[in-house]
Amino acid sequence: RKTCIGGVVEAWSGPSEEVTSPVFDARTGKRLVIGQLATMGEVDAVRAVEASAAAWDRGQGAWPQMSLAERIERVEGAVAALKERRDEIVNVLMWEIAKNSADAAAEFDRTVAFIGKTIETLRRLDEESAGWRVVSGVMAFVRRAAVGVMMLLGPYNYPFNETYAALIPALLMGNVVLMKIPNVGGLAHVLTFEVWAEALPKGTLSFISGSGRATVPPVMRTGLVDVLGFIGGSKAGDAILKEHPAPHRLKAFLQLDAKNLGVVAPDADLDVAVGQCVVGSTSYNGQRCTAIKLILVHHSIADEFVRRLASAVAALPRGLPWEEGVLITPLPEPKKP
User: Fold this and answer.
1) Are strands 138-140 and 133-135 parallel, antiparallel or unpaired?
2) What is the pLDDT of residue 135?
3) Percent of residues, the chain, with pLDDT higher than 70
4) Which residues, given as ranges, of the chain have pLDDT below 70?
5) pTM of the full predicted structure?
């Protein structure tokens, strides 16, 4: 049990919640306990955002005042340290959210590749905007600047990849980030506490954990958050936005809901259509915002399509995440069957 607030990693002596795996212990018939997360409350959450605000210091803090080259160097150093923990992080993704071994490894590797591409693109943009240019007949000099303190809430299904897709660009631009760890899928972030605490100036990246309803609203009500990064449902997103005392100045990066549709035309190659619909709807058990949720099939081929689809889904190999070739694994959330 530990926390990371204001760049300080320390043992947590307060209340905590057991983190369990969707894998059951055959001897006890219960989910395996694989760790613990600190159960923070309002006081701890507000302390964390105040540490973030102090690190930002209205844009005068150590991190926002660093040059882009220095920030890139710090982030690259953190990535190098994260790579050393790759196997441990991948293993946690398998045990905590039951992501199969290939997908868990791909999530980590894809995240590292994304960071590399982001840095490459940022360097190019910085070079391109180094001097004056003419835009629609107007002389312009473009300078990119940080916004302030970002409150970041990532999802459980891709806790590493999706969260870092928002975290890394925010950090590189000089923003300070307060991350709310998901209650399911949060252990992967706990493994990174020491890495970020060592790589960044104090307070640049802090973490809070516990009930979202107990921690997030108090943070937003302080008015110290300048940017909200949220990946989840629209109702939750709306509720969080309404807690801010000045929503007109709050910048929001939101990825909300998804009802993706598959359409099968009457002249479709059914083998291809079925194969793509199965992949699109069942990858990581369909627990993706980009997964196919609905399929519209022309009535002339509907019966045959359904027959083939049912056979294809029934044939998918099921088992534990680390078993070779497994595609369907247990669902990580205790309240879901």
Assistant:
1) antiparallel
2) 81
3) 99
4) 336-337
5) 0.91
